Write the structure tokens for this entry.
Amino acid sequence: MSAIVVQDFHKAYDTTVAVVGLSFEVEPGTILGLVGPNGAGKTTTMRALAGILAPTRGKLSICGHDLETEPVAAKAALAYIPDDPRLFDQLTIWEHMRFVASAYHLKDWKDHAEALIKTFELTEKRDSTCSDLSRGMRQKVAICCAYLHDPRVIMFDEPLTGLDPYAIRAIKESIRQRASEGAAIMISSHLLSLIEDLCTAILILHRGEKVLHATMQELRSKAEADGKHESLEDLFFRLTAQPQPTEGAAK
Amino acid sequence: MNDALWLLMKMRFRAWFRRFGKNASNVKGALMMAFFALMIGCWFFGLVANRVLNPKHTSGADPIVVQRFGGPGMLAMCILIAVTSGTKPPMLFTPAEIQFLFCGPFTRRQLLTYKLLTQLLMTLPFSLFMSVVFRDIAGSYISAAIGAVLIFSFLQLFGLAVNFTASNFSALAYTRFRRIVLYGILGALVVLGVFVYQRYFTGGDVMQTLKAIEAQPVIHTLLSPLRWYSQVVTARSFGEFWPPALGALAINAGLLALVYVLDAKFLESVSTASEKTYARIERMRRGGSPFHHAAQSRTIRRQVPSFGYWGGIGPIFWRQFVTAQRSQKAFILMTVVMLFSSIGPIIALVSRKKVDEGVPWGMAGTMLMMSLFVHQFLAFDFRSDIDRMEVLKTLPLPAWRIAVGQLLTPVMLISLVQITIVAVLFALLGTIGPLLIIVAAFAIPFNLVLIGLDNFLFLLFPARMVPTTPGDFSHAGRQMILFFGRAIGMLVALMPPLLAGGVLYIATRSLFAAGAAAWLMLVLICWLPIPLIAWAFKRFDVARDTPP
């Protein structure tokens, strides 16, 4: 059973159409890179999958639970980390963990929470209020909260913004580990190098429509078969019809 | 309600108190909080002492009048809520609540219960406060407090019920439905107004007219249940209290049931509206006045041409001017407030009553003094640049030129509005003359002193215009200190012109000579804030002084 199923997803805001007829599936253990230019519909798709936005048309399901008819069961299986994580400013890191543990009915969660906090080097700040944390630390807290209930679907929107190299490495490793344990992971990012490095599949959106959905292996095989050495960046620009910067402009 | 949501409420309540401790942990914050507490304490103590020492004293407010106006007042609020329900979200969730609760395993009804309970808890301290303030018109402290809780809950639930009913229609049907309802209400009000005017209006007796309106069967039926709320507040015995209290409670319970039955899919609309609202609050915190960002984002077609370099002052003036030019709501609001200050002469003019000779002088003085109250609307200076201080500090310009460039926009614009209003009013009153020239001459130096002083105080005690958290007492204390500081500063600054004018008038008995002396002294003094601001700007440490 696919962890994420999106069927004929449309989303319109008044006269603006954000996503048009998008369909795709993500299997457990897959790390899907969601890429596209600004306004392509990436965040809208993720927010709809997180249950924040209602689709104008189409069906979305998480681990077999329809978000429309079984929203609580679907949400219990997922975690969403937005690009700008918003925390309760006056609560401490540990209080955030307490709340998440209570929300997802977790038992014996404290050791797991301590381990997560240690992994992301937040132990010293455990009892600090979140208003005192830097952007990167807030991102780490959001990730700790997301990981605490061991979700089967994890969605990241620009996960590396504001993080130091140690945290970047920790997050990349944790993503690979979670995927190897069977979680389906979706990463939306403009950093094509991150997608190339981390993802096992890619979905390119342009103006709300799907222009490519393939595994990285399929892309490599196709490139080999065609005798081309096209990078992900070349492919992205070709598919989204953005002119590449000329040498002079780059200078 | 879900256990996790109870836990969240409990932790946030505790965190609110933790915030006080944090604010008081530094000397400045503690002093400001203490000042606020002292001011509120003095006021509250005075109120309570007055009650204890003089129990028979009343403010003259008649409970019967309160009961009579209470019902129509509630009806007016309901109409206002219904009319504006499409433009406001039914409730607001913080960005953190959206991230953790909307994506979390909670049902819509659980989230609704959480928000309603939070709002109810927030009305409790306010209701207790109101019970003291409105003790004169209330039957007792308890009836006032319970009445206030019932009224706030009713308005909240009524707004939610209207909004959820509306959202259960499709967008088109809702628009049509609302339009039909609104036109119906407006039409009924017009017909009623004409009918009442023709039949009952007897020489301006408001109470008699109101009685006549209330006697109409439809209005009487609508007002009867709404009167229960004011009857709860004014009840003087348990016998008077319990029937309307039970009635009001039943209405609130009915509205609550309706809200749950409707079970509107509010998550998307509320999250979108909440995000917009919090983004606006965030912008306000970065940019100062709440009026700067009232205009919606749009494509700019009219470009303001560059003002020239002027030794570096021009570009800074131009930037602030462009921002001001795109904040029309601030202008409109300021102009309305200023016009309101001269409402008396305007009414006299409209009703063609004879205008006293002293009126133009009074208007001119009032218009100048209004700067004290309206200059916050046009804070297009350092006050709106708290998060741009780094950029200003890196400019290759001496501090005094930056200060002049920053002050020019609010000084020029407020002066322009004052002079224009005075000119128009004077033209209507038929007394355009030397007085207008006096206003024009005094406006710019007066505003320069006032706004310069405010900027100087701001750079010494920087803070955001919008408090970080609701109930931030150190922020309120700071605002009070600034208000007193501004008043004292203005007194000191205006003393030399007043003295110069007074001395010359005594010596020469010439108003012209006295005015000219006062003006000259003001022109000399008005530049003093510039070096002070430049000094404060130089000592402003971005890392230390930028408020959180």
User: Anything to note?
Assistant: Chain B has a mean pLDDT of 78. Chain B has three domains: 9-51, 61-275, 311-545. Chain B touches chain A at residues 2-4, 7-8, 11-12, 15-16, 18-19, 22, 94-96, 98-100, 102-107, 265, 267-268, 271, 468-469, 548 (CB under 8 Å).
